[in-house]
Amino acid sequence: MRLNELRDNSGARKGRMRVGRGIGSGKGKTAGRGHKGAKSRSGYVVKGFEGGQMPIHMRLPKRGFRSLFGKEYGVLNIGRLQKAIEAGTVDASKPIDEAVLVAAGVVRAEKDGVRLLAKGALTSKITLTVAGASKAAAEAVEKAGGTLTLTAPKTIEADKA
């Protein structure tokens, strides 16, 4: 057998059905779409249409609100940070910022900054720069002998308190 003698197996390639080419073709007149109704028309889509009944997405109650100006922070617990320091992925002797945490895989994504939370325990003395921190997390860092710098601007609520 030579390259110029190669052929598909019989029936391997089937030609497309040409619909709407006369009743003798077997797919003429309605072209296999049945009779009347929206499905027989060209361009039938209407996702979520329920035949005139009020669609379910309109029947169900609406809930919640997402602010256009809301910030979404990457979350970091102090226990997770301590595990990373013990594993050697984060160097406690050097300053730790958001870029270092993302590069080490401790935080998945920076988003609008990293917020430090107080779940777990911190024993290492660290110099940390993050966008935000809970009061308990800030106290835990200072209790361990470290320093915490916050980069995010203060909110109106924080100024009032």
Structure commentary:
The chain has 161 residues and is an alpha/beta fold. It is 22% helix and 11% strand. It has helices spanning 56-59, 78-87, 98-104, 135-143, 156-160; strands at 74-77, 114-117, 127-130, 132-133, 147-150. The protein has a three-stranded parallel β-sheet with strand order 1-2-4. The chain has a two-stranded parallel ribbon with strand order 3-5. The protein is elongated.
In brief, what are we looking at here?
With 161 residues, the protein is of the alpha/beta class.
Counting helices, strands and paired strands, the structural category is: alpha/beta
Helical stretch tally = 5
Mean pLDDT: 90
Helix content: 10-25%
Going across the major beta sheet, what is the strand order?
A: 1-2-4
Given as residue ranges, the uncertain stretches (5+ residues, pLDDT < 50) are: none
Cα-atom radius of gyration = 32 Å
Give the N-to-C terminal Cα separation: 87 Å
How many strands, what sense, and barrel or not for the largest sheet?
3 strands, parallel
Number of strands: 5
Features:
161 residues, alpha/beta, two-stranded parallel ribbon, 5 helices, 5 strands, elongated
Secondary-structure topology with pairs:
Layout: H1 56-59, E1 74-77, H2 78-87, H3 98-104, E2 114-117, E3 127-130, E4 132-133, H4 135-143, E5 147-150, H5 156-160
Parallel strand pairs: 1-2, 2-4, 3-5
